[in-house]
Amino acid sequence: MNCEVCQLKELEVEHFEIREVLRCILHTIVFHRALGLVRPKVIDLELFDITYVQCGDGELEKKIDEKIEQFISWVEKHPNKKSQVCISFYEVKNKHPSWFTNKTERLYWEQWYINLNVSQQQKVHSGKSHPSKIVVDPGGNSLEERSARRAALETSLREVLFQIIKFVNEKKDHVPPISDGVVYFPYEVTIPRWILSLIHEI
Amino acid sequence: MASSHGNSTHSESAKTEQIITEFFAKSLHIILECRSPFMSSRNFSGEQALSSPSSSSSSSSSVRPRDKWFNLALGECPAALENLDLWRQSNFEPVVVDVILVKRGLSRTQSLKESGNAYSSDHEEVFSGSEEKIIERWIVQYDTRKPREKGSTSRRTSSNVLHTLYKKSILLLRSLYATVRLLPAYKIFRDLNCSGKLRPFTLTHRLLSFVEPFTRKEESEMQRFSFTPVDTSSGRLCLSVLYHSSVSDASSESSTPMSPQFIPDYVGSPLADPLKRFTSLPVSSPSSLPFSRRHSWSYDRYRASPPAYFSPSPTHSEPPAANALRFGPVNLPPQHPDSSSVHKTNYSYDEYYPSPNFTPSPSPSPPVYMHGNHLSNAALLRTESAPVCIPKLNLHPSLPMNDNSRPSRGSKLDTSTDLIRFALALIWDCFSCLCVVVKDDSKKHYGTKISTVNSSQFSISRSSSRSFLDDFDDSDFPCHFDVEDDDPMYHGSRPESFDKRSHIGDQMDPQAGGTFPIKKSQDAAVGALVHMLKKAPPLRQELSTSTVDSTHVSSIRAEHPPDTSSSVLVASKTTADALEELQGFKLMKDCLLSQGGGTCNVAAGIWK
User: Do B578 and B438 contact (CB within 8 A), yes or no?
Assistant: First the structure.
């Protein structure tokens, strides 16, 4: 089974927008991969005029929020860098236990890369970062520019969501069969640091 | 073997049919639940077994609660879909959902039409004079034209086939669920469904079993989004949407808030400036207040106070004289023949008293007004914070004495106190109506006098009185309060008499003249006051009558000259008269404030 990879369009977000953007994208992806019985929950974003769908699972929400917080912490430590959040779906294959290992093997069948370019133009920043790191764009703080940037981000975010939908539609064969009683395919959310290091070297 | 295979195939096709039927239902459910605002829906998560018209009734598949199909529990089913199964003939017919944006017209009628091939939802509303525009068209169809993949079924078991079909249907419906909320029409739906505002548009839909082609122009304006079809053994499930990408213009139109919103400071509310409010409310009978906002509390005013206390405290910048003179209604009520002489001397005030229904005395004019304009207007001006209840009045009202003792407007007066205050302010304004044109000098006098009063209590009424006065500044009706400079007698006398009023609370000088009745029963005072209030006309509506009344009153007053001087009461009031009246009102106020019983001598008269 091949692993389908989807690179989502890069989004330029400000620090305070990370949470909402990531929530929106991650929940949309998971909703399309939670093929068990779900009661969808519709969420209206606060920062953008976009409505996305969650699975209506509190536990899932909590897990995703934790991952988002980890990402935000990472971003604060590595500001002004392109960053990624990767959500991978895998199957658990029980490897034949051997004296080497008795681990279970994860067979990834799908990976989504959420590309973010976090700008540090906001005035309010987490206390962890150095104040000197805050780049204040002389023209970036004007109301018009901010609203234009926000509108552009909303359009891009909507495009990303449609990108997810199209991907889900076009590629269905690689999705494993649904197991009874299982709502979500196993997944993990990671921050591929190695990509960042590569980008940093460029 | 063959039979088993045949049975298996039959079972597979039946199940496929079932999946397809449920796919139609579920997709329409997803679409309509966020395109059909205010839909009434029932909880359709019941155990209704699916019975597709084209499938065998004895489906081998387990009966699932319909809501759980495709692992997507949506809950309530739109009412539009309740009869979908009956409407659709077969799965081979497409289902077309046209989402229509209707811009409201003059009237709306609901139409429920059911033709051979078209089923209109019972929520369809036709707005006469409205404009309809299809902003979305969803097409769900089972396309059997796709050739079956050769050999696919032979290599795959039926269960796998069904499982794959089901899984892919789930994926498609998941993406449909997300897509339907990302399209522009969702904003309109959300606006209509969630917002309580009245919008000039609405969303409706219609279900068709055929596609009405768009014009080329229409189609050029729309964008298409097609979901990847889901292959089945005998065809494929197709779902696509044509949508307008710019329908948000309709939702951005101005709307009228429909949701009831409590306006705390509406005109006339107790929360608003009460005195300012009184300006527009002639203190007369409730029925004669055309422009007044009738409140339940407003009637308390009529119990509240004699005219002396009706006057709202003149506010800050207002010339107090103006406010004083704007006391009472513009037009004077007809004379009451049984008025005492004192009444008649200052009939102008008599008329402003409320009708006698508040008093046993037939005489409408309370003693307070008997010296009419001579009463201390300052007393009247302070009524804003002077709670007076007419039943208690007897001219010894519970009105707190002015000035310092009286609580300021912002103090913690109870409701009844506030009501009384409002009443007083109202009455003050009504009397102020009498004086449309007030000379500046007279205003100055009043200003001087008023200044002695607690200015804080004047603040509100003053502004209100001023506004009221302004309305009548250029009035064309004669007011007996009109100050005439060419009357030397009163110009000279008024200031003098006015000066005698060093502060509010002075007992009215009995020597002021018999312009007004000396003694008057409390009830009569109240009744007269009420009568006056009732007769008080509104701001402008009764301007036409005010002329007559004022003239009438003037003539009446002329017939009953004051003791001191008949010339005091002339057709048009002078500034001096107004000052005197102010003094009279002051005295009246004092009497009302005093806690003692009995009558109050309110011989305002003209103080010389």
Answer: yes
